[in-house]
Amino acid sequence: MTDYGAFATDPLFGLPLQELWFGLVFFILGMFLFLDGFDFGVGAIFATRDDDEERETLLAAIGPFWDGNEVWLVVFGGALFAAFPAVYANLFSRHYLLMFAILGALILRGLAPEMYEQRHDEAWQTWWGRAFVVGSVSAPFFLGVFAAHWLLGVESLLSLPGVVVGLAVVALTVVAGVGFLAMKTRGSLQRDVADYGPRAMAAYLALVVVTLGYLIAVRPDLGVLAPIPLALVVVSLAAAAGYLLALRGGRYTLAFGAVPVLVFAFVALVATLMFPLADPATGLTVADAIISVLPLNIMSVASALLLPLVFTYFGILYSTFSGPIETGESYS
């Protein structure tokens, strides 16, 4: 029998690996919501465009990115399964219809642009254009419902707080989509898109306020008024103000830079309110749900080696396709 010594009995370098992996799972979820979030936002904004050239520009803006961005959701599921298998099993068994809804929306969002480009008659493109919008809006909505139900331990398909959080996530993706498209477009399209930013931000902040008010009134045990959640709310408000000021001043790269702050503050708020529970519906804590030390150490080493490669890939991808969309560029 192989003797792994302290590697099998003690956390790597004495690190709090339980808490780090809990944070990593939510960090990966935040990466998906940020990167694929602006793709969803572009899909929602697509509904406001009726000019063929403008629609092609919107599709071309996300064409190189969306399939790579979507990988983060797969990584989230893999990390949750690997580190917290009991939580993964409980969540997916309780919310399998919601999982299928998210999967169906993502399939529709991914398939629609491909089909949209296959034919250029009006009826065909109208149908697939609508399918693209539906997939782009419903995916973040159901993801928001899932996040709310995970935090609150709700077992039904839909609930009032789930719907409110779902709408908040949709609004947040529109905020992200506006910031992204404002960088990638020029002229009248850029100005039109930028005009949606303040309205989307107002909707997001209003829905967050409603959610926080509900949690304070109905679930005071979550500790919304504790220092860390309040600090995250303040950070979100500061990022929102920076986003709006940057849009108004035409500093679109700076506006888009505020988006990850908003996204990760939202995800961190969910994680903070949930901790130390990993599955509030069953009462499983992070310490109860985490795998044993040896596989946890092995996964930690593997993640430390692989994550820099993943970030390098995305750095190359985004630098290669940086800059605005040029006239004549298309999705295909």
Structure write-up:
The protein has 332 residues and is mainly alpha-helical. 78% of the residues lie in helices and 2% in strands. The protein contains 13 helices and two strands. It has a two-stranded antiparallel sheet with strand order 1-2. A hairpin with a 4-residue loop joins strand 1 (277-279) and strand 2. The longest helix has 32 residues, at 187-218. The model has no long low-confidence stretch (mean pLDDT 91). This is Cytochrome d ubiquinol oxidase subunit II. The chain crosses the membrane at residues 20-48, 69-89, 95-112, 132-152, 158-181, 201-218, 224-247, 254-278, 298-318.
TL;DR?
With 332 residues, the protein is mainly α. It has helices at residues 6-9, 17-46, 52-62, 66-83, 85-94, 96-116, 122-152, 160-184, 187-218, 227-248, 252-274, 286-289, 293-320; strands spanning 277-279, 284-285. It has one domain (15-308).
Rg, nearest Å: 21 Å
| N-C termini distance | 55 Å
Tell me the number of helical segments per DSSP (H or I, 4 or more residues long).
13
Strand content: under 5%
- Average pLDDT over all residues: 91
Number of domains: 1
Structural class: mainly alpha
DSSP, total strands: 2
Give the helices and strands as they follow along the chain.
HHHHHHHHHHHEEHH
Spatially, the strands of the biggest sheet line up as 1-2
Profile the largest sheet: 2 strands, antiparallel
Detail the poorly predicted runs.
none
Considering DSSP H and I runs of 4 or more, what fraction of the residues is helical?
Answer: over 70%
- Give the overall silhouette: globular
